[in-house]
Amino acid sequence: DTGVSQDPRHKITKRGQNVTFRCDPISEHNRLYWYRQTLGQGPEFLTYFQNEAQLEKSRLLSDRFSAERPKGSFSTLEIQRTEQGDSAMYLCASSLAILDRALEAFFGQGTRLTVV
Amino acid sequence: GQQLNQSPQSMFIQEGEDVSMNCTSSSIFNTWLWYKQDPGEGPVLLIALYKAGELTSNGRLTAQFGITRKDSFLNISASIPSDVGIYFCAGQNTNAGKSTFGDGTTLTVKP
Questions:
Q1: Would you call A2 helix, strand, or coil by DSSP?
Q2: Buried b vs exposed e over B29-57: b needs ≥16 C-beta within 10 Å?
Q3: Contact A51, A72 (CB under 8 A)
Q4: Taking CB atoms and an 8 Å limit, are A102 and B96 in contact across chains?
Q5: How close, in Å, is residue A111 to chain B by CA atoms?
Q6: B32: closest chain A residue by CA
Q7: Neighbours of B13 (CB within 10 A)
Q8: Do B104 and A44 touch (CB under 8 A)?
Q9: d(CA B4, CA B87)
Q10: Residue A59: HSE in the Cβ half-sphere, 13 Å Cα cutoff
Q11: What is the pLDDT of residue B1?
Q12: Do B85 and A93 contact (CB within 8 A), yes or no?
């Protein structure tokens, strides 16, 4: 399978714990995006990378959230001191950017986070 | 900020019927995308539109990029039960490639 892969698919954690999610993009894609989706809503942009550089962060990405893409391949999204409001589906997407213009993005299956 | 309004919010149709849904924005986009999402899964790309006025088909799906750059529609012809799901439109207006999504149209197809 050469699509976007996310791990884990589901995570249940107690409030206050830290969690980390992983995303493996399509191998030739240089752009990687993180989105958050709550029930009944469309995905909301969190942050994106061009290779290993994090180029933009949404205001939704509070200080408790951090994302990395150390070698320009896979990415991790960490949430520290989780709160119940962090419960959501976290989606990763990747795309190819040519001459600085990004083409369409392809999504992974998401990580469903439940904070109890 | 930018907002996309999708309509209708939900649709209940009979198998074999045609479906039309649309998306409007208060801002201009230079790319429109349509995705389908099944419960518990990530969105799957259906059609990408890059030029104002562009009309693109993918099997039974047809989508158009509005000439004002502020709207797009998606048509599904001869619906089948596996068309059930949530359809999202998304707009991009920067080279970053980040998308602004609508809140989806939920489609139910009765056999």
A1: coil
A2: bbbbbbbbbeeebbbebbbbbeebebebe
A3: yes
A4: yes
A5: 9
A6: A104
A7: 15
A8: no
A9: 13
A10: 1
A11: 53
A12: no
> Do the Cβ atoms of B48 and A103 come within 8 Å?
yes
Q: Which residue has the tokens 């201009």?
A: B28
Q: Which of A101, A109, A112 sits opposite B95 (nearest CB)?
A: A101
pLDDT tens across B9-58, in order? 999 999 999 999 999 999 999 899 999 999 989 999 999 999 999 999 99
Contacts of B45 in chain A (CB under 8 A): 104-107
CA distance to A18, A92, A101, B23, B55, per residue, from B66 (Å):
44, 28, 21, 10, 9
Select from A43, A48, A110 the Cβ nearest to the Cβ of B96.
A48
Beta-carbon contacts of B26 under 8 Å, excluding residues fewer than 6 positions away, are: B2, B3, B70
In residues, how long is chain A? 116
What does the block give as tokens for B38?
A: 């099944």
Mean pLDDT of chain B: 94
- What are the chain A neighbours of B35 within 8 Å (beta carbons)? 107
Length of chain B as a residue count: 111
For A25-116, strand residue ranges (E) read 31-37, 44-50, 53-57, 65-68, 75-79, 88-95, 97-98, 101-102, 106-107, 111-115
Residues of chain A below pLDDT 70: 1
State the maximum Cα–Cα separation within chain B, in Å, rounded to a whole number. 42
Cα separation, A17 vs B107, in Å, equals: 37
Q: Which of B41, B96, B99 sits opposite A109 (nearest CB)?
A: B41
